[in-house]
Amino acid sequence: MTVKSCICPYCETLVPEDTTICPGCQEDVAGLLKLAYPHVTYYDEALELAEQGELARARDSAYLSLRLRPTYRPSLMLMARLNAREGHWETARQYADMAKELEPDDPELDELRAEIDEGEKQQEAARHSEMMDDVTARRKAAERFLALHQRELAQAALYGAILGGVLVETARWLIQSWMQRKS
Ligand SMILES: [Zn+2]
User: Lower CB count within 10 Å: N or C terminus of the chain?
Assistant: First the structure.
């Protein structure tokens, strides 16, 4: 569980951060912590789902966590990241800004905000290059078509020339034979 340190309810020893085993009496206080911090439980669940790629369900859990504790920073940040991952840039920024409002001096939150902006920029660039690829592909197809067309035109011109030549020859032959007959 991702929780701050707490006091063991059995022996009143301080249980440090990132463990649920009391160093005083070796009791596992995880169950109690879950009851005491349900928003953390939802956050942990959301994190696990996000790691499994279950983004929609992860968002549901993070949302529940924030319903219980609207100022829980890890859930706000996770919500920002989940929304960014799905391209919901505006929502992502809103969650990042909410976290920032709570802790204005935290550089991690500036990084998160920058990550979101950068992600959006990259997506825009990718979309743009896809569009360019499309234009390039169409232009290439058109050029190929044009090349084919030109070859056909050249062929037609050649046939025309040959045919023209044949006609001229025939005409000459006809005139010649007509003149021969006349003389
Ligand atoms: Zn204890």
Answer: C
